[in-house]
Amino acid sequence: MAPVLVLIERVDGAVRKPSLELLTLARRIGEPAALVLGAVDDATVATLGEHGATTVYSVDAPELTDYLIVPAAEAVTHVAKMLDPAAVLVTSGPDGKEIAGRVAVALDSGIITDAVDIQPGDGSPVVTQSVFSGTWLADSTITSGTPVITVRTNSVAVETSPSTPSVESVDVAFSDLARAAKVTGTTAKQSSGRPDLTDAAIVVAGGRGMGSEDAFALVEGVADALGAAVAASRAATDMGWYGHEFQVGQTGKTVSPSLYIAAGISGAIQHRAGMQGSKTIVAVNKDPKAPIFEIADFGVVGDLHTVLPALTEELGKR
Asked: How far apart, in whole angstroms, are the C-alpha atoms of residue 49 and residue 226?
C-alpha cells in the first residue's frame, strides 16, 4: 500500500488527539507515515506506533521554532516529494490550513479543506465535507497531483492498530523565504484547566441570552461538571462577555464534539455553521421558536438561569 503522509501536532511533547484521528483515517487509504516537526522521543514513537504509524519521519531544525509557518510547509513538501504519498493529511485550523495550502501549491496539487470523512476511492480518496452550514454532505476527489486534505477535529473516533514503526531523520534545506518572518518572542497562554475548544469532546456554549458577563459562570459550572470546554456565540463575544478566542461560528472556530450544549443561543445560521457537525446537540432557550431547536437533538424551553444551576447540581449528584 502507498504511504499516507500525516502531519503530527504535539503540545508539551504529547501527541494531540486530532493527529491520532488523522492516523485512523490514513489507515483506510494506505500506510500511515507520520511526520513530526521537532525531535522525536520514545513516548512519541510509542504513541504513533500504537495508532498505526509504520514510519515516523522527524525534521528537527531551529527554523521550525524560530520562524513562522513557511519552514513547516517546506518540511512537509520535502517529505511529500520524497515519499510520493497517496495523500497528505493535516488537521484543520489556522496553521494547518495555511501549511496545507502552501504544500498544495508547491506540489501543484489539489486541496480539500475541512473534511469530515475520507474513504478509499478509485485512484484518489473520496473526501466528504459538510457544506452550506451543515445542510449538505459533499463527496469530492482530487484529480491533480497528490491530494492534500485538512480534516476537522472530532470527525472520526480514534482507533488503535499497534505497529512497530521505523524512525528516520530527514534534513531539509530551507529557503530564504522560510526565514522572512522571525518569531521575536512568545507568551505562554494561561491555562483554564479545561480542554482546548477545538479538541474537546464536550462543549458548553453561551449566547446573548446569558444576559451578562457574570452569567457565564453558569456555563462554566456546567462545563466543569462535565470536563468540557467553554464556548460563546459571536453576540456574546462582541459584547465582551467572553473572549473572542472562544467564539464558535462562521467567523469563529468550528467544532464537532460528541456533545454540544447551547444555552441562550438563538441558532443563527452563522453560529450553526461552526457547531452543526456536533454528534448530539442540546439547546436551552426560553423562546420555543428559536432556530436552534430545529437542529437540536434535545431541547429545554426555559430560563437558562434556572436550568443551568439545576443541571450542574444534578451532575454533581451523579
From this structure: 31
pLDDT tens string 83-95: 999 999 999 888 9
Query: Over the stretch 242-256, which tens digit does the pLDDT of each residue have?
Result: 999 999 998 888 888
Gap between the Cα atoms of 309 and 209, Å rounded: 15
Closest by CA position to 112, among listed 94, 95, 125: 125
Strands 14-15 and 10-11, by their bridges, are: antiparallel
Residue 300, C-alpha cell as written in the block: 429545554
Cβ within 8 Å of residue 21, ≥6 positions away: 91, 151, 153, 154, 155, 156, 157, 158
3-state secondary structure 18-71: HHHHHHHHHHHHCEEEEEEECCCCHHHHHHHHHCCCCEEEEECCCHHHHECCHH
Read off the amino acid at residue 72: A
Domains of the chain are 3-179 (3.40.50.620), 202-317 (3.40.50.1220)
Residue 33's closest CA among 74, 106, 82? Answer: 82
Q: What is the DSSP letter of 77?
A: H
Q: Which residues contact 287 (CB under 8 A, 6 or more apart)?
A: 266, 301
**Cβ–Cβ < 8 Å for 112, 23:** no
Tens-place pLDDT, residues 167-200: 999 999 999 999 999 999 888 777 778 998 988 9
pLDDT given for residue 157 in this prediction: 87
CA–CA separation, 16 and 10 (whole Å): 5
